[in-house]
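Researcher: I'd like a structural prediction for the single chain below. Treat it as a standalone chain; there are no partners to consider.
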Amino acid sequence: MSDPLILIPARMSASRLPGKPLADIHGEAMIVHVWRRAVEAGVGPVAVATDEPGIVAAVEAAGGRAVLTRDDHPSGSDRIKEAADILDPEGRHDVIVNVQGDLPTIDPRVIAASVGPLSDRAVDIATLAAIITREEERTEPSVVKAIGAELSPGRLRALYFTRATAPSGEGPLLHHIGLYAYRRRALDRFVSLPPSPLEKRERLEQLRAIEDGMRIDIIIVDDVPLGVDTPHDLDRARAMLAARGKA
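Model: Treating it as a single chain, here is the predicted structure.
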């Protein structure tokens, strides 16, 4: 149906955990663990896109592929667009999967699930969400909520994304997971657009696509992968990977 390329953007400028991509997890850099999970997804070749030579060196030392990109990209989407053009100038890969570089414990099956909706040619972008089970997350602005119209069990067409508690009324709320599978032409179109009004207001990049009329479909998965943003998160990731035998 498609020929996906998985790209993992990574940069060193995280304020709460400096040097985050190279943080040690059981003898390997965190970015290497993310690369391994992406390879285990088995949906296509994987490469890391970064502006830091040290990240390139760490990935290549583990047997992976990395590409050096510019250091002035405003977002990970812009970085993976440049990396896709470098690695695949002929456009053979018609789907680009953007896996965040701070998800060392992500289930490879979750990555694989993100590609499924793009078998429908009407879909421009696919992403993921999980049902919120912790009460405090319902009102937490850092937890982005996905709102969509159900197409089939476990799949929705996205209508909106927000930091507010929404939708109102009875029923589950969805925690959006920031992993995206782009149709190649949709990625090209997305990065060519200026930031949109709602994107700037909510500080959510995906609203640019919604406002431009792109269709985003959402796959519901079992849980939210741990994003490593703090030293505490890093300790949790180490413990989780040790328990899974990934250490």
